[in-house]
Design goal:
Helix content: 25-40%
CATH architecture: 3-Layer(aba) Sandwich
Number of strands: 4
Radius of gyration: 15 Å
Number of helices: 4
Strand order of the largest sheet: 2-1-3-4
Length: 156
């Protein structure tokens, strides 16, 4: 699968990636932050939750992202998947099998998205865990993002 990524006057970002987790407080905001840093504006990246709640990312996620990657996600506001158009994205990355099933069974009833647009990961939710749990999680996410971008031939 080869994706041409570039910018034009009509649409700054040709590639659009959405990361989806449960509450949009940990995994997907961390993935969004890392992907934005790696892609440096050559793609549009967002994150949502299937049951988003709260007014910001978790304190642990904010701390780990700043400490490990010098990425500030303190301004992140959780967004619910029901408030966006999935059809606007080229790839929808689900953080675990529950999220994947939810997207494939329920959301696809309302959005006509192709199954090949859904990329399934299996990343354990660190919410409620220790800082070490968050660090393990975010390092797995970083590796998964690098693997995805190599597979899409965006980075080498």
């Amino acid at each position: 699968m080869k994706v041409k990524v570039g910018m034009n006057k009509e649409n700054r970002h040709n590639l659009r990636i959405l990361f989806v987790c449960y509450g949009n407080k940990c995994r997907s905001p961390m993935a969004e932050g890392i992907a934005k840093k790696i892609l440096k504006g050559i793609a549009h990246v967002e994150s949502v939750g299937i049951a988003a709640w709260g007014s910001n990312a978790s304190e642990e996620a904010i701390k780990v992202m700043k400490e490990l990657f010098d990425i500030n996600i303190s301004e992140h506001k959780p967004k619910d998947i029901k408030n966006i158009s999935l059809n606007d994205f080229d790839y929808i990355v689900t953080m675990d099998s529950y999220i994947d099933t939810y997207i494939k069974k329920y959301i696809r009833n309302y959005h006509h998205i192709e199954l090949n647009k859904i990329i399934s990961w299996n990343i354990i939710d660190p919410y409620g865990g220790s800082i070490d749990d968050y660090k393990k999680c975010v390092n797995i996410i970083k590796n998964q993002i690098n693997d995805l971008l190599k597979k899409l031939e965006i980075i080498s």
